[in-house]
């Protein structure tokens, strides 16, 4: 059984709503829970429309090639086919899209730059007909040499992945095959190195991870009578999609209506567009609703992945266990298109030293353009790769100094007030040493935990049901790691959210309706919005309006930001509604009681009460037949860009910290790993919903475990083709691979954030991987400089 | 071709079925039952798990024609299925599976498709909600069918038993801890301990 996961610490003082049930701080249950357990929740792939067609995408079979010709005639001739479109059929001059740099062709034009790039699209009356038609499209490719790594990308005669770049990074990158470069320079590394008693270097490799959300990319585009289109879609950010879709269709944004369909997970993989424009194009061309659903094979090509990275680190320290300096170079492979690469570079560089106090720092992070699969956002976003490397380094330095690895980290742990390498002060609690202390203090799982009265239970041993060992050759190891992640969009981005809140009497009861465009992807934002509305408006009934573009942007469900930013927007709009409701009350009942004018008034349990607890009026009477509604934008404090030469700047909004302890058992003869326990301690500021908070931490932890021991998209270095696009060959942890994950939740309020909360979704994905690696190193004595670890790395047969 | 099968206790007839269509496709696209999910369509993820004559199977790997004349239980019928099983003198759960005749004797009730209200949930469904085992929910239908079947066979599973029984069902959101909690909770409630 797991350690109890009761939150502790002192929550922020709350007055309004403290008496109302189901408010913040309670583990209320998901409003969509019943629909999700009965199978009635409508995911994007479940949508159906009368007369609906199925869309199919033809993707390139090679990574880098000129397109000599495309012949669609046979496909068009197939009965049941309604349309076959290529680049030449795009309706406007806007033929590219992209999150920051519009470098991604809607359909390939003249050239394909990665394996699986969309070349043509088909609509037919049966999905199999659409697939067969796509297979009948003849594309003649003339293959080009592939660029697959830093050496081939920056060679003097390297082919440019994108000719004629005119984006805003081209002026400061050393080569056109580098998307963005961010150095960070602080202090004097040469002088600091001279003071160091030990200097430790290391080179690390982090493999390409897939988000592997279970609900495949899908959506339904329905043409509308006014010439517009209504897209029902699983995405992370409706308004970002809208801004990219509308110009390609040649429609004003108000003629592209977007409604969030049920989303089966995201983890960054739905930040970029996938089938959105393709479905709309086919719907507008055929005049019929068009549904596109990727299968798993296509999903591996249909979204960006986590950047694989090479990381070069140098750490110096004095004998008394203090870091003198850190120097590092992080090379991220962005693949064929920019996606979120520039922002990932910003994170990797600014967070590349980790949660430590180091005055002398030289960091350089770059992202490459190559012909590998495009990489972009995934949970942890640039901070994950760095954490894997700097935590390996911290263990190496500790070993060199003969210090306990936790003790060494604690001696160098940052705290509130520490300056980041960017010069930004960490101005809220940074309990790095405390998280390490807590995770270390958790009880250890029993030795030889696989033993039962009937002998060895192979299910709890490395190799599991393959029955490869009954304990022979099995050794245990323990490892620790801690990480730092930014929360919210950084580097000067206007990271706002919008919430519309309405209060009225329905069926004799005051009801609040919360309407945002936030993408609920499983994280539980809808649960938290209802809790916030109950707390701020003192009502029991809250309706969550479906997310769509009829309300202002909520920003992305990314960067651990939605509870902070859209939660903040909901809180703000509720406060504005509350003021209006009280104004209404003063107008209607103010004369009846002096407290309306003099006391601080709260809304509690459907009533207006004084802070002394005296009831002044029922909300039902205050509202009468009126509805009070407010739609307002809300912003966190602004950030600024990093200086392009020095990396200095207050670039981040908030930081988030988690620490892990991994206990593993390794069959050293076969190189098989069983993670026995993966304990986590995390500061969450304030747990708005403790059950969901713990669920996020455990889910993030498990994705970190996956990339430690199994998950990697394998790209052939000779052809740049993906070799394992399936759940048969790309493995994610099953319930048998996943250990007990005890969680210790710390709540130290960040006074800058709503309710003192801290964004939590990503931090656990950082430290999980290096903790598992550290434990495997501890068990085996091997150096292990790459992740995931495969059996051959543990048996010396690699 | 035409396929006749019983789904959640109701005789169903699917017309114009292609030979290559899976049971999953027929359920989702021809019979209006999209609860069984399409996460990998190659038998690796378990999100399409249904009972076929009582046996849990990946419906994506069953050709539609193979289901001819057989009984299928999907997540949409799980609550009624559990109720019928419990009403059939099997409250302990140790009834060793549900027979064909028994399965034919019951029908799924209607639900409000907007809110899901009016649905009496099965113990495993309620436990998933209560324990926080649902995040995005895409794996949930398959896990519920698999977990319900395990509890039918083994009402007092050990943690290792639960992990073994559910090892064919991938979940990407939860890290499985809350799913373990949910199954333990359902088992405890079933045994009268909670």
UniProtKB/TrEMBL annotation, chain A:
GO molecular function, a single term: iron ion binding
Lineage, opening ranks: Bacteria, Bacillati, Actinomycetota, Actinomycetes, Kitasatosporales
Species annotation: Streptomyces longwoodensis
Residue numbers spanned by region Disordered: 1-31
SUPFAM superfamilies attached to this UniProt entry: CO dehydrogenase molybdoprotein N-domain-like, Molybdenum cofactor-binding domain
InterPro entries recorded: Ald_Oxase/Xan_DH_a/b, Ald_Oxase/Xan_DH_a/b_sf, Ald_Oxase/xanthine_DH-like, AldOxase/xan_DH_MoCoBD1, AldOxase/xan_DH_MoCoBD2, AldOxase/xan_DH_Mopterin-bd_sf
This protein's name: Xanthine dehydrogenase subunit D
Composition bias, Polar residues: 1-19
Domain (Aldehyde oxidase/xanthine dehydrogenase a/b hammerhead): residue spans on this chain: 38-145
Classification via Pfam families: Ald_Xan_dh_C, MoCoBD_1, MoCoBD_2
UniProtKB/TrEMBL annotation, chain B:
Pfam families: Fer2, Fer2_2
Domain of life, per lineage: Bacteria
Keyword Signal: no
Entry-linked CDD domains: fer2 (cd00207)
Boundaries of every 2Fe-2S ferredoxin-type domain copy: 1-78
Protein keywords: 2Fe-2S, Iron, Iron-sulfur, Metal-binding, Oxidoreductase
InterPro entries linked: 2Fe-2S-bd (IPR002888), 2Fe-2S-bd_dom_sf (IPR036884), 2Fe-2S_ferredoxin-like_sf (IPR036010), 2Fe-2S_ferredoxin-type (IPR001041), 2Fe2S_fd_BS (IPR006058), Beta-grasp_dom_sf (IPR012675), Diverse_Oxidoreductases (IPR051452)
GO molecular function: 2 iron, 2 sulfur cluster binding; metal ion binding; oxidoreductase activity
PANTHER family: OXIDOREDUCTASE WITH IRON-SULFUR SUBUNIT, XANTHINE DEHYDROGENASE IRON-SULFUR-BINDING SUBUNIT XDHC-RELATED
Name this protein carries in UniProt: Oxidoreductase
Lineage: Bacteria, Bacillati, Actinomycetota, Actinomycetes, Kitasatosporales
């Amino acid at each position: 059984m797991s350690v109890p996961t009761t939150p502790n610490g002192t929550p922020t003082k709350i007055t309004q709503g403290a008496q109302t049930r189901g408010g913040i701080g309670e583990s209320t249950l998901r409003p969509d829970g019943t629909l999700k357990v009965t199978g009635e929740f409508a995911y994007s792939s479940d949508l159906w429309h009368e007369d609906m067609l199925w869309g199919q995408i033809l993707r390139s079979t090679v990574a880098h090639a000129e397109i000599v010709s495309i012949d669609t005639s046979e496909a068009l001739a197939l009965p049941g086919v309604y349309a076959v479109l290529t680049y030449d059929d795009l309706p406007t001059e806007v033929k590219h899209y992209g999150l920051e740099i519009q470098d991604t062709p809607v359909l390939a034009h003249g050239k394909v730059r990665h394996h699986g790039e969309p070349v043509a699209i088909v609509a037919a009356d049966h999905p199999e007909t659409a697939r067969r038609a796509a297979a009948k499209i003849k594309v003649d490719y003339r293959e080009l040499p592939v660029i697959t790594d830093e050496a081939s990308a920056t060679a003097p005669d390297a082919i440019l992945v994108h000719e004629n770049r005119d984006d805003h990074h081209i002026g400061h990158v050393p080569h056109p095959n580098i998307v963005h470069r961010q150095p960070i320079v602080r202090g004097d590394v040469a002088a600091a190195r001279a003071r160091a008693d030990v200097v430790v270097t290391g080179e690390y490799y982090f493999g390409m991870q897939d988000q592997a959300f279970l609900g495949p990319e899908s959506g339904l585009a329905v043409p509308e009578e006014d010439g517009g289109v209504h897209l029902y879609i699983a995405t992370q950010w409706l308004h970002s999609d809208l801004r990219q879709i509308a110009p390609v269709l040649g429609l004003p944004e108000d003629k592209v209506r977007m409604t969030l369909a049920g989303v089966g997970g995201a983890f960054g993989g739905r930040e970029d567009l996938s089938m959105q424009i393709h479905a709309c194009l086919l719907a507008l061309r055929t005049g019929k609703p068009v549904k596109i659903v990727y299968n798993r094979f296509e999903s591996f090509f249909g979204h960006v992945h986590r950047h694989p990275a090479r990381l070069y680190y140098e750490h110096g320290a004095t004998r008394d266990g203090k870091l003198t300096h850190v120097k590092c170079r992080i090379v991220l492979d962005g693949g064929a298109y920019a996606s979120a690469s520039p922002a990932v570079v910003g994170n990797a560089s600014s967070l590349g030293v980790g949660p430590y106090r180091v005055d002398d720092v030289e960091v350089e992070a770059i992202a490459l353009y190559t012909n590998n699969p495009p990489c972009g956002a995934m949970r942890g976003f640039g901070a994950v790769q760095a954490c894997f490397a700097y935590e390996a380094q911290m263990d190496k330095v500790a070993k060199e100094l003969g210090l306990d690895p936790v003790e060494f980290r604690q001696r160098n742990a940052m705290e509130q007030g520490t300056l980041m390498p960017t010069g930004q002060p960490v101005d809220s609690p940074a309990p790095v040493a405390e998280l390490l202390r807590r995770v270390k203090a958790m009880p250890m799982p029993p030795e030889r935990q696989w033993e039962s009265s009937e002998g060895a239970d192979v299910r709890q041993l490395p190799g599991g049901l393959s029955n490869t060992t009954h304990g022979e050759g099995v050794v245990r190891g323990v490892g620790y790691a801690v990480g730092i992640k930014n929360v919210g969009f950084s580097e000067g981005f206007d990271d706002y959210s919008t919430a519309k809140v309405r209060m009225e009497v329905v069926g004799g009861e005051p009801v609040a309706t919360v309407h945002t465009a936030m993408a609920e992807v499983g994280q539980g934002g809808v649960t938290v919005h209802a809790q916030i509305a109950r707390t701020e408006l003192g009502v029991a009934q809250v309706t969550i309006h479906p997310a769509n573009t009829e309300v202002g942007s909520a920003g992305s469900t990314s960067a651990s930001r939605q509870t902070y930013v859209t939660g903040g927007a909901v809180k703000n709009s509720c406060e504005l509604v509350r003021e209006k409701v009280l104004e209404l009350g003063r107008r209607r009942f103010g004369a009846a009681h002096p407290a309306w004018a003099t006391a601080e008034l709260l809304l509690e349990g459907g009533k207006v009460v004084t802070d002394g607890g005296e009831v002044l009026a029922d909300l039902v009477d205050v509202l009468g037949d009126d509805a009070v509604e407010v739609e307002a934008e809300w912003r966190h404090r602004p950030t600024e860009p990093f200086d392009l030469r020095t990396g200095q700047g207050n670039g981040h909004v908030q930081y988030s910290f988690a620490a892990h302890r991994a206990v593993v058992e390794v069959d050293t003869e076969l190189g098989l790993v069983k993670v026995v326990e993966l304990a986590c301690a995390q500061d969450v500021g304030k747990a708005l919903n403790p059950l969901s908070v713990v669920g996020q931490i455990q889910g993030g932890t498990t994705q970190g475990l996956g990339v430690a021991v199994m998950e990697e998209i394998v790209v052939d270095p000779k052809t740049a083709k993906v070799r394992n696009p399936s759940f048969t060959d790309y493995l994610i942890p099953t319930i048998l691979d996943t250990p007990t994950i005890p969680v210790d939740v710390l709540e130290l309020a960040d006074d800058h954030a709503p309710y003192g909360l801290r964004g939590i979704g990503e931090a656990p994905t950082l430290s999980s991987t290096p903790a598992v690696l550290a434990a495997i190193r501890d068990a085996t004595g091997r150096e292990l400089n790459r992740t995931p670890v495969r059996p051959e790395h543990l048996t010396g047969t690699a | 071709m035409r396929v006749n099968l019983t789904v959640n206790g109701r005789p169903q007839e699917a017309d114009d079925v292609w030979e290559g269509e899976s049971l999953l496709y027929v359920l989702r696209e021809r019979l209006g039952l999209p609860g069984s999910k399409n996460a990998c369509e190659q038998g690796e993820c378990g999100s399409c798990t249904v009972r076929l004559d009582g046996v849990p199977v990946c419906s994506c790997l069953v050709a539609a024609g193979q289901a001819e004349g057989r009984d299928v239980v999907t997540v949409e019928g799980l609550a009624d299925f559990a109720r019928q099983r419990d009403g059939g003198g099997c409250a302990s759960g140790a009834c060793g599976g549900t027979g064909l005749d028994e399965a034919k004797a019951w029908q799924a009730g209607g639900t409000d498709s907007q809110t899901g209200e009016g649905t009496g949930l099965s113990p495993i469904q309620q436990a998933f909600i209560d324990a926080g085992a649902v995040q995005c929910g895409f794996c949930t239908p398959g896990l519920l069918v698999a977990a319900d079947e395990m509890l039918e066979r083994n009402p007092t599973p050990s943690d290792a038993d639960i992990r073994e029984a559910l090892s064919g069902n991938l979940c990407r959101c939860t890290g499985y801890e809350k799913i373990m909690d949910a199954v333990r909770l359902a088992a405890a409630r079933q045994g009268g301990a909670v």
